Sequence to fold (597 residues):
Amino acid sequence: MSLSDAELNAIYLTLLLASVTTAILLLVGTPLAWWLSRRRGSVAALVEASVALPLILPPTVLGFYLLLMFAPDTPLGRAWESLTGAPLAFSFSALVIGSVIYSLPFVVQPLQTAFSRVPAGTLQAAATLGATPRDQFFSIVLPMSSRSFTTAASLGFAHTVGEFGVVLMIGGNIPGETQVLSIALYDFVESLQFAEAHRLSAMLIVFSLALLFFLYRREDASAWRVSA
Amino acid sequence: MSAIELNIDCSGAQNFSLRVDCKLPAQGVTAIYGPSGSGKTTLLDCIAGLRAPGADSLIRIGNQVLSDQNVQLAPWRREVGYVFSKARLFSHLSVQGNLRYALQRRRTRGNFTIDDVSRWLQLDTLMERSPDSLSAGQQQRVAIARALLSAPQILLLDEPFTNLDGVARKQCIQLLQQLSSELDIPMLFVSHDIEEVSELADYLLLLEEGRVRSQGPLIELCSRLDSGLAQEERAAAILCAGISRHDEEYGLSELDVEGETITVAALQRPVGSAQRLRIPARDVSICRQRPTDSSILNILPVTVQEMSAIGPSSLTLRLALGTQYLLARITRKSAANLDLQVGDTVYAQIKSVALVSAPADGNAPVENL
Fold:
């Protein structure tokens, strides 16, 4: 069984998209989760609700609005084109932006849960020993929630691999640029190439099952079971 | 003498406010004593910078201002060691990791090393252990060691023995007694247990509903009828005594207090050593004549100096023994039967004596001597 170039391309693109998205999600999601874990009130609730929105919205809703925003005649589209020289719509970058928003809750929620479990008293103790808030975060909070980072990164990665609706709306279907696995699969089914469709589907199932098995086997799986 | 100056006006939840304006000695152990809800922990939190002490507040230790109208140092910039009632160790680090955490962050060059504190607090065998695997007493010893390693100007202890069982509590108290006599670090120690306080403290600040009820040297305050301490059920006087003789035949030791003798169970310390005694007011009774056929050994001639009613049926007496004082709790009816008046010379029968501040001997009450 050998994979065609198109399939290999789709797999490569999917892994690249998921990796880039996960990296960005960890950078953006960590401070956001920390902020949410230490704040109460309407502003925090609104931010939390917005982060959680992709969990319940049909992905096509998100994709539709992102598509409108990325169009070349919008401020965002124009700014992007003048900065990079290429249009944003139907580009790999557009996929990354869409995926970051779409997978945000899968990274933020496990981290937020882990951060809010770090007792305030422990941080007070660190403060009286001379640790600044920044120092407290890196020396206490991060190591105490290290396992949740694995969870968050795995979920963000897996969810990006599995996304379809957003990608379909904003990515178009350009091989080598925006044609990820789920879209390639859709193409095969549309053109009645069931053998290829089977192959890709089976690969996705095995990959997803292996990842989830790995996560559930760990002791602290309950930390994210609710949010996922 | 340098002092700790506290002027705090801090409002909390549910109408609670802490208003304290006092000076405390910047040496030895000062106990902050009072019922729960009297603001003791709030006071420590203000000193540590974990809670804002109010706009016009002043917190000064010696000549170092921690907080006033212009400056409020952040907790991590104050040289304040804090031992919480739950040890609050870092569970992701070993015992040694916890100690190193403090060492790496201290601002001044302290004199102590990890080896020093681990010797003082008997942590040598625990260094590689995880904090979660330690007993409450061991955890608290690590917390004290960790706080000392941050080279604090002052050590705050918030009910440090609350979660400890009897043996661990006793050991912890003894270790703190040794530390306070060997290190030049003032300690502020919060407690609602007067026995703990009389073992450890030199000075006492009494809080009640967020206000200072009274303050002064422990021994003086314990015997003052207006301090608030003498009204308590467990009121007791503290006497300073010296060991004068060991009675090997009966397994007893004799102590000299103001020329009178108090007999206790044998002490393993040399003649001439100083010894503090704690005598509960309700274990002291009064006789007009010296009883000759009593089983009680400790009968001292005293002068009634002051009487104060406690509830409808009881009185607390302040009894002078030379320059020191005893307390006695008797019924109003007994006082009337004996026709007791201030200035009378009577005999105090002492049913029990507890030894305090004697690290080698402990403080087991010695009954019926």
About this structure: Chain A touches chain B through 17 residues (CB under 8 Å).
